[in-house]
Structure formats: C-alpha cells, structure tokens
Amino acid sequence: MLELTVEAVVENSEPRRRRLPEWAKETLARDPGLEYALPSPRVIDPITDDLWREWNGDDHSYDAVLATAQRIPRELRYVTGATTVESSIKDLLEGGAGVCQDFTHLFLAMVRGAGWPARYVSGYVGPAGDAETMEGQSHAWVEVGGADGRWVGLDPTHGQLTGPHHLRLAVGRDYRDVAPHRGLFYGTAAGAAPEVSVRVSRLSHQEVERVPLTAAVHWQQQQQQQQ
C-alpha cells in the first residue's frame, strides 16, 4: 500500500472587502501577472467569450466579474463524479454539472477573456465560524488581479468572495500547475481509486510559533551534518 501524508501550516486572515480598480492594459504589460491574463492549456475555449457576452453584454467591470462568480453555481450543478481531472470546459457546459475544478476553469476562462488577470488557487476549506477542528476538503477557487497588484479571491463554486476558511496552498495558471500531487507508480498490483482524508485545525498565534516546518527542520539537520 502506498500512503502519502502531507502536513502544512497556513497563516490566513480576513480579506479586505473593497472594490477593485479597473484593469489598465498598459499596467498589465509591465506586470508579472501577465501570464495569468493569457490562455493556458486547461483554460482556453472560445465558447466562454460568447457566454460572457450572454451574461454581461459589453460590461467588463469588476461588478461583472463578481456577478459571473455568483451566477455560475446557479447555472450549473455541483455533482461529485460528474467529471474527471481531464474534463474540459466544453464537457462541463454540455453536461451541466461538475466540481470545483471545473467551475474554477470556467470562471478563469471567462474572466481572462474579459481582460482580467486571474489565477487558479489550490487549497482546502478549513473551519468556519468558531469551529476549531473539522474534516476538511480539497478545494479550488480563483484570485483576480487589479492594477494595484493586489489579488482578490472569488469562489465560483459557492458564488462568493473567499474568506479566512479558504486556505491557499498554491497558485498557477490552471489545475495542471498546482495539482495536489502527481507521479507515476510502477508495479504489478491492480489499480485502485485513492482514498483521501483531510483534517484541518485552527491554531493560535502561540501554537503557530511552536510548530516546526518539516522542510526547515530537515534543512537544518543537513547543515549540521555537513559541518
């Protein structure tokens, strides 16, 4: 049996609730966020431009971006198993159902087509409210960039802005850049679907200071051995 265990400590806070300024093309050309404004392997489908016009007309404002994030879960159904990691935006729209990865790819394509830089966020949903510990779940959402260089999180699966319970682990152009894990297994055993469990706990500031990061500890040990 192959067992993969991942541990991480994520510091998070309540996002600033404010309006984004309009994106300026001349600013985009000088900004490293340019790669998030262009099509990527999993986020390219001409039909999304038509869908944007159907929903928003010629409005490319931040209000239209937010309205699009809120509309996606009303138009499409969240159904586990309806798609796979290889499903395309076309598969989602034709089937009318998918999961967070699909909703995120659709939203990315629509927003980028409207001229906004947007990046795929891979992470987890942690305890909301006063809950200290919960069985978490992997999740995906979008961060949209503004001309001031800031990124605002939008969750097209739930049609809302992200909050402190959205725990970001990695960002990329699409799912392929930030898949939770990847690799190859060689052997004679029959294949089986992986079983995944996530446990998320809220830590106090004092607890965070006491938690050693495994990578940092390993690096320190290597340095000591070399001395």
From TrEMBL:
Domain Transglutaminase-like: 92-158
Protein name listed in UniProt: Transglutaminase family protein
PANTHER family in alphabetical order: BLR5614 PROTEIN-RELATED, SLL1049 PROTEIN
InterPro entries (UniProt xref): Papain-like_cys_pep_sf, Transglutaminase-like
SMART domains linked to this entry: TGc
Gene3D superfamilies: 3.10.620.30
